[in-house]
Model the fold of this input.
Amino acid sequence: MPFNPALSKQASFFESQRRPISQVFAVTLLAIAFFTVPQGLGTGWHEVAEWLGFLLLIVAALGRVWALAHIAGRKNRELCQSGPYELTRNPLYFFSFLGVIGFALAVQNILLGSVAAAGFLAYYAGVIRGEERRLRILHPEAFPAYCVSTPRFWPRLEVPATTSNAPIDMGAFTRGLGEVFWFLSAIILADMLEWVHLQHFLNPFTLPFRVRAA
Done:
């Protein structure tokens, strides 16, 4: 069917509220990281978790750039199935998920990571379902076949066989890079939070149950 701009802009509640809810989610995550500190911060396996978190944040940033290079300016208008979209139907959300887990590990807070992961998956399940309903209408033949061949969220572990030769919409791509910046800045923020907590400048809750003495 011909591309319908009006239909492409019809969004479910989860989609329409994605940005403000994501912002609230990020602020809440940061506040919890700021006012809580895990026992053993900066020692032993906590250091391993921190470096793993840094790695995931870098992967999340690079992965989002990769996905944006394929989808920026083409979303809904075309059914992108190249690059990361050959491995998962939602690579932008998958790499964002890695970024959320990465930040929690970078601040060495496993409990925070578990809660954040559950909240992310629960909310974005609604976002994805809303987008899929629209894509089934916009691409009635191609999208069902795409669903059969490509996982919804968790990617296949293989090298993609196809690349996109479509021109990049630099305006949409540049706007998307703003979100990538926050994943990289989270590395510096996590390191600053560790230093603040180790210097006892705050009187945060020590997870899981007690308050750190002043």
The helical segments are 5-8, 13-16, 18-35, 45-71, 91-106, 110-138, 142-149, 170-198.
